């Protein structure tokens, strides 16, 4: 089974599976957030927001002034 936002076929309340999904969301994340949504004590959603920092020569030029 892939980790593409699918729930496990046998038991979607398996805590180990949820931890695995959270670790997968954190993997490779340099800047950003991972939000875990819980309803009635059960993880129902994991959101990953990744930010990409861009460096600009224009910013460097303005700092020197």
Task: Please describe the topology of this protein.
Elements: H1 15-26, E1 32-39, E2 42-50, H2 57-64
Antiparallel strand pairs: 1-2
Provide structural commentary.
- This protein has helices spanning 15-26, 57-64, and strands at residues 32-39, 42-50.
- The model has no long low-confidence stretch (mean pLDDT 80).
- The N and C termini lie far apart (55 Å).
- With 65 residues, it is an alpha+beta fold.
- The radius of gyration is 18 Å and the shape is elongated.
- It has one domain (15-64).
Brief description of this entry?
The protein has two helices and two strands.
Distance between the termini: 55 Å
What is the SS-derived class? alpha+beta
Number of helices: 2
Helical content class? 25-40%
Question: What count of structural domains?
Answer: 1
Shape: elongated
Topology as a string of helices (H) and strands (E): HEEH
Give the key terms.
single chain; 65 residues; alpha+beta; two-stranded antiparallel sheet; 31% helix
